[in-house]
Amino acid sequence: MRLSEGARLIRFTNEEFTQLITYMSGQYGIDLSKKKILAECRMNGELEKRGNISMGEYMRQMEMDMTKQLESILLNRLTTNYTYFMREPKHFDFLREKILPNIKPEWGRISFQIWCAGCSSGEECYTLAMLLQDYKDQGGWLPSFSIVGTDISEQALAVAQKGRYPVRELENIPALWQKKYLSIDEAGTSFDIGHAIREKVRFQRMNLLKPSVGLGQYDLVLCRNVMIYFNEESRKKLIEKLYRALKPGGYLFVGHTELLPRNHELFEYVCPAVYRK
């Protein structure tokens, strides 16, 4: 993040940074230990807005804030929400070519359920919904499907729930999907996800390291490019949680830089970044 012209970077003392590391790691599993300058840059505008206060003072005010607004701001500033439609397309190819054709009507399956853990601003969820609907439109058999996307960032979830994105994000979306499932605004600057796709997806706020009320069992779980921000202990806890959230035989997709050991004690290795319970 670049500072505005003339802005002064408010530096963290070692004590303040240690306090921030401890808080983010303990509450959310996020490891900031090697990201001091990044954290300073991302928090600078907020500290300036509040009268050039120190990070220590911000943390003190946050502890006293019963509305949790300051905590929400901290998370929105310090978490990375970079994503886009059709990111890491090999996962979507695997879903369409290997998983979906093996779902047979005679199994009596009444639903196909997906959880996107760390869904950010929703592009991953909507990509999945368009893929599944297109598979059905093309004659593939699939029961009723639903997708739940969870994230810790209220700011990212607000974008996801709105379902409106800048037109530049059309770049990776197949032309047929654009025609069937999206609508571009009159100004040509943004597009909306169509109702038929949006009704298949719901979003909710979730801290992946905390007990989750109402978390069901899923046929497919995606947790991609999330664990790279976690410390080792938190990654282990998260992997166990993802395992419990999968139905027997269900699949887990992780980011291509987050590979589990091939002899993992819980998951069977299928192919790079794809595992099975």
Automatic annotation (TrEMBL):
Q: Which GO terms describe its molecular function?
A: protein-glutamate O-methyltransferase activity
Start and end residues of each CheR-type methyltransferase domain = 5-277
What is the top EC class of this enzyme, as a single word?
Answer: transferase
What's the Enzyme Commission number for this chain? 2.1.1.80
Q: Which GO terms describe its biological process?
A: methylation
Entry-linked SMART domains:
MeTrc
Q: Reaction catalysed?
A: L-glutamyl-[protein] + S-adenosyl-L-methionine = [protein]-L-glutamate 5-O-methyl ester + S-adenosyl-L-homocysteine
Specify the superkingdom: Bacteria
SUPFAM superfamilies (UniProt xref): Chemotaxis receptor methyltransferase CheR, N-terminal domain, S-adenosyl-L-methionine-dependent methyltransferases
Q: Which PANTHER family match?
A: CHEMOTAXIS PROTEIN METHYLTRANSFERASE, CHEMOTAXIS PROTEIN METHYLTRANSFERASE 2
Q: What is this protein called?
A: protein-glutamate O-methyltransferase
